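Worked example 2:
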Amino acid sequence: MARPRTTKNKDNSRRSKKRTSILIQEKVSYVDYKDVNLLRRFQSDRAKIRARRVTGNDTQQQADIAAAIKNAREMALLPYTSRVTQQRGGGRGRGDDRRGPRRDERSDEEFNDEVDDTTEATESAETTDEVSEDQEVEA
């Protein structure tokens, strides 16, 4: 015969006490979208809004924080995303970077050198066109 089911006792020792919100600790009564330092504390390193269970906010506080962060992003006080500083390893042959650095990652000197090279190339092409036109006129 089958044994009757028994319920396992949940281990409550793993549960930690509920976090208290930063808003309660600092006694913030109004969440202002212009208070960028406060709002950054509710964002991850990739500029995502942290969850309630992480920050300890209640429902109303989380709604206020989310609205303020979205408003600050719209006003360009906070970034929508932050640039990733470390690239993941390229798998399946995608790690071959034959193109070189992106335009915004190059130094100003590299960019100016490239611009100078292209202007010199176009100027030399224009002078060769003028010389060939002069030769046609003489003929």
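The chain is about 45% helix and 0% strand. The first helix runs from residue 22 to 25.
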